[in-house]
């Protein structure tokens, strides 16, 4: 990717990430602020990483299970729509992202590679995945209850 394309993509992404921060529910805005302050990332990175994780969970859950999550957690769909979708990655990114599973085998290698690549595209290490997950699960339990948190955990961790 040349320099001009990179900066054009960066500007486009910045514009897209502004959307969830303006239209997201107060609870989602609080989640993004919490992730940003606890992990030292920008709200744009928090929104992109969170959206990517919800997209990842959706790809691993049945439609009705994920519908329960989005129904209980308003604003999640907006985050998902602005998360960068990345189809590139390397095995080293996959290896870093695989630590999310702690040895589980429920998720596809392609899904992990895409998730790790998305975090890298956002300017974060794929190791940050492990730091986002507990904050998002705490949020899901607080806002949606134990059942919603368990569904989301199943989609994220297998």
Describe the 3D structure.
- The protein is mainly alpha-helical and 158 residues long.
- It has one domain.
- Helices cover 75% and strands 0% of the residues.
- The chain is built from 9 helices and no strands.
- The radius of gyration is 15 Å and the shape is globular.
In short:
By secondary structure, the protein is mainly α.
Furnish the topology, listing elements before pairings.
Elements: H1 3-23, H2 26-39, H3 43-60, H4 63-72, H5 76-82, H6 91-98, H7 109-121, H8 129-144, H9 146-157
Helix pairs in contact: 1-3, 2-3, 2-8, 3-5, 3-7, 3-8, 3-9, 4-9, 6-7, 8-9
Mean pLDDT: 78
Number of E-state strands = 0
Output the structural class: mainly alpha
Oligomer: single chain
> What order do the helices and strands follow?
HHHHHHHHH
Terminal CA distance reads: 34 Å
Shape: globular
Count of domains: 1
Largest sheet: none
Radius of gyration: 15 Å
Strand content is under 5%
Helix content: over 70%
Q: How many individual helices?
A: 9
Uncertain runs are 1-21, 87-107
Observed structural traits:
mainly alpha, about 160 residues, globular
């Amino acid at each position: 990717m040349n320099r001009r394309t990179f900066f054009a993509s960066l500007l486009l992404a910045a514009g897209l990430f502004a959307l969830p921060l303006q239209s997201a529910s107060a609870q989602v805005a609080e989640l993004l602020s919490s992730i940003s302050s606890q992990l030292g990332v920008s709200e744009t990175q928090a929104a992109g990483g969170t959206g990517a994780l919800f997209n990842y969970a959706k790809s691993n859950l049945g439609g009705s299970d994920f519908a329960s999550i989005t129904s209980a957690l308003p604003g999640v769909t907006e985050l998902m729509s602005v998360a960068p979708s990345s189809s590139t990655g390397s095995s080293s990114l996959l290896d870093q992202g695989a630590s999310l599973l702690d040895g589980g085998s429920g998720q596809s290698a392609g899904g992990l590679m895409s998730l790790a690549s998305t975090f890298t595209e956002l300017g974060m290490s794929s190791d940050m995945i492990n730091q986002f997950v507990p904050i998002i699960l705490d949020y899901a339990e607080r806002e949606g209850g134990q059942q919603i948190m368990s569904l989301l955990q199943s989609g994220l961790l297998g």
